[in-house]
Amino acid sequence: MSLIFKVIAMEKHVNKNRSFDKLSYTIYDKKARQAMVKYLTANNYTDIVSKEDYNFDIYAKKDYGNYTWKDYYFEVEVKTQWRDKWNPLWKEIRIPERKQRLINIWVEQYPNHDFKFVVFNNDLKQAWFIDADVVNKSKVGTIQNSRFVDAPHLKEPFFHIPVGDANLVQIAKEAK
């Protein structure tokens, strides 16, 4: 499938209420994947693959010695509203419910791999790491985050993950 066809398919797919935001994707996806690869490299992951194929953003392995290693998948995104430090009034991390598709692929095809969602702040210096099974078990609901009560994005379903179920990680300062 050609890249142009994939982008068109993504624009039509996405979810029940909001269309694909190509500008935001263009600005943040590559930066988030690069920051994640840099983090994984610094933390001794190997065989790191970051390519856009509309599945998991990054694949990596980690060697734990004694001939034991583990495979990992990562799905990364940037929460643009999160600047500097996490706002203590935010009691949960929200991940679009449309990511259920990736959880289903993981459960059905790669149950022995670890799968984590990684939500970066705007400057890519901090990130929440959330196990996919935690996301999968989280409640799903819509949010009111705008004065415009009829805006389509307010009907989009999100996983609501309590911050206590996630791990806040400081990413290298030069992650940009």
Describe the protein's architecture and organization:
This protein has 176 residues and is an alpha+beta fold. Helix content is 27%, strand content 30%. It has one domain: Trna Endonuclease, Chain: A, domain 1, CATH 3.40.1350.10. A 6-stranded mixed beta sheet has the order 1-2-3-5-6-9. A 3-stranded antiparallel beta sheet has the order 4-8-7. The radius of gyration is 16 Å and the shape is globular.
What's the gist of this structure?
With 176 residues, the chain is an alpha+beta fold. 27% of the residues lie in helices and 30% in strands.
Radius of gyration: 16 Å
Q: What's the main sheet like?
A: 6 strands, mixed
The SSE string, one letter per element, is HHEEEEHEEHEEE
The number of distinct helices, counting runs of at least 4 residues, comes to 4
The level-1 CATH class:
Alpha Beta
- CATH topology name, in short, is Trna Endonuclease, Chain: A, domain 1
The strands making up the biggest β-sheet line up spatially as 1-2-3-5-6-9
Secondary structural class: alpha+beta
Strand content: 25-35%
Keywords:
176 residues; alpha+beta; Trna Endonuclease, Chain: A, domain 1; six-stranded mixed β-sheet; 9 strands; globular; disordered N terminus
Could you give the topology of this structure?
Blueprint: H1 3-13, H2 22-42, E1 45-50, E2 58-63, E3 69-78, E4 92-96, H3 100-109, E5 114-120, E6 126-131, H4 132-137, E7 139-141, E8 158-162, E9 167-170
Parallel strand pairs: 3-5
Antiparallel strand pairs: 1-2, 2-3, 4-8, 5-6, 6-9, 7-8
